[in-house]
Amino acid sequence: MVSSSHEAMHRIFQHDPGLFSRVSHFLGVDVPTPVKATVLPTDLTDTRPVERRVDTLLRLETAEQGAFLLAVEAQGKKVPNKPADWAYYTAHLWTKYRLPTALLVVCQDHATARWAQQPVCSGPPQLPTLTLTPLVAGPHNMPVITDPEEARADLVLASLAAITHAADTAVNEILKALSTALRGIPEDIADPIVEFTAQGLGNGPAEHLWRNLVAVDLSFYKSSISEEIRDEGRAQGLEQGLEQGHVQRAAEDVLLVLEQRGLEVSDEVRGRITGCGDAELLRAWLVRAVVVSEAEEIFEGE
Known about the structure:
Elements: H1 4-15, H2 19-24, E1 34-39, E2 56-62, E3 66-74, H3 82-97, E4 101-106, H4 110-116, E5 120-121, E6 131-132, E7 135-137, H5 148-153, H6 155-164, H7 171-181, H8 187-200, H9 205-217, H10 224-236, H11 247-260, H12 267-274, H13 279-289
Helix pairs in contact: 1-6, 1-8, 6-7, 6-8, 7-9, 8-9, 9-10, 9-11, 11-13
């Protein structure tokens, strides 16, 4: 079954086809900004009973280089036979559309990125008839955007940065910058960013942090993911007063936010949080945990 993280890694390029030209700078190439972009069918099945589908397929047109195809593949792990599929995709597309064809592979871990960017030849060593050399975007070359102003300048790139760094500790600062940058952004622009980021992060600690940031920083948004997050918050008592049965979970949320932000949590701080039975106080500590520079600062004014 295709995961939401897999979908977000390639569909974000459908949402903003110009993102590829901005990403290419980090990949060591210079692709002009497209003046026109068309999302094409992804089904590459031919007359044989074999079905092959590329994740996202775009037809981009630039003033400098004319039209070309961009196939975007989201790759979550090493799959030995995948390079052969990629070679089929590019050769088939080149033949079908008679247009230059590029392949971009988006990864979320260093090992998969290193594997994906290795050139693969279809022939024996002395006869490299067809050589596949994908462009790879991953944690090794995507920017770490921790400045809210930089994130605000290109929200889609900041979202992709968070997605590709989902397994790195750097993702915490990226997510904080992105949530701050989204404040005051019109909902029709912010909603897709919130959605793509939540889906792309998968089910790890970063996704939980993003949900907390959205619940606290972006409570005014009405997107489906925002509503889902707030529904969860209400169910857990974090939006409109904590019920007694959810106090322990609330304390765990406060600790999780502090730890995922890389802050040192002393035994004294941990004991005070886990020993607290005051619903409203835990709610206040959760809000402060998002922005403080030291864990002890959540208690200021108490």
